[in-house]
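Hi F.,

I've been meaning to write this up properly since the lab meeting, where we talked about keeping a consistent format for the predictions we share between groups. The idea is simple: the sequence comes first, exactly as it goes in, then the structure tokens exactly as they come out, then a line or two of notes. No screenshots and no reformatting. I'm using this chain as the first example so we have something concrete to point to.
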Amino acid sequence: MDHCKSQPSITRRRSLRTRAACGETCHAASLGLFAEGGVAETRSTPGTTAFRLLALDEDPGARRRVGFRHRLLASVAGCAALGLAACVFGFRGEIDFADEVTLDRVETVQLYLPTTNTLILTGQPDRTSMSWSGRWVTLGGSSDDSLRSARKASLVWETWETIGRLRPDLPLEIRDITLLEQLDVDSASNLAHEIVGTGDVFVSGIDAYLSIRLGGGNVQVDGGDDQLVVRTSRGNVDLATAAAVDVASGVGTIELVSEASADIVINANGPVYIELVEVDDLDIDIAAAGPIVVQLDTATHVGAGSYRRSLGEATRRLWVRSNGGRVELHMIDAPAAPDPDPDPVPDDPLP
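Output, unedited:
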């Protein structure tokens, strides 16, 4: 399956960096498959579910993805360490799913997810329901085992007063051999959203408060005008927003296009690149940095280590700690004005 095709298309104003549409944040699910085994796949529609088994010996083109990510590889290794010869995962079970719930009286949506290859959250104005679709992937020693495990995995929607939560329901016996390969969620743009999990996250169209807390994974956010909080232990963070920003990343590059006057607080362990639309009231505090380049309308600087500067009334924080990473501050490039027509075509002369 080409996961690149499912990545969201987000248009950005930027001059610092560009990336291929399916660059470093595009990952295929990787599972431990063995030559003597097969690939068990599951497909579902609203009315039917069809299963098919692809024997690798019969179909050399079957997906042989080596090295399961995150805990799944550890689970296989753990079986070997325990000397359990029967614990050999040679079959991959997949099941597609979809569902929808009302957002009546909900003010905050929480997405508490298991290990997830890719989460795509899209906000839509005036939406009164939330829908989702995705695919569970499990491993098993036989086709029946893998498919039976895939059927046990589910997402559960629960509500408490004004909070709605989508969470996994995974029996203990499949918890370490199950991956949410992809999840697409369509929700209301005016509601607060909180995401907790591990894996790559793509968000667009959420105008209200947005919190993303990951055990690891890349983050890309487009939009928002309230507050944006991001925590990831490892992964790149790419933001284009008018919201106040509070970001911390254990390892990775942080890129921010700040489209309004709002606070910016960044704690990173790598390069930080920021583009700003306004700089009239900035309290700039950069420390623990490597090279520093500042090219703003009212301030320029080239140095290293730290930089402190107050612009105007300095009511808006721009605090960066990069732990030796490069820090660059630039203005958002204004769109170029169209060139006047140097030689306009005259009107046809009167007869």
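Notes:
Residues 71-81 form the longest helix (11 residues).
The longest strand covers residues 108-124.

If this format works for you, I'll send the rest the same way.

G.
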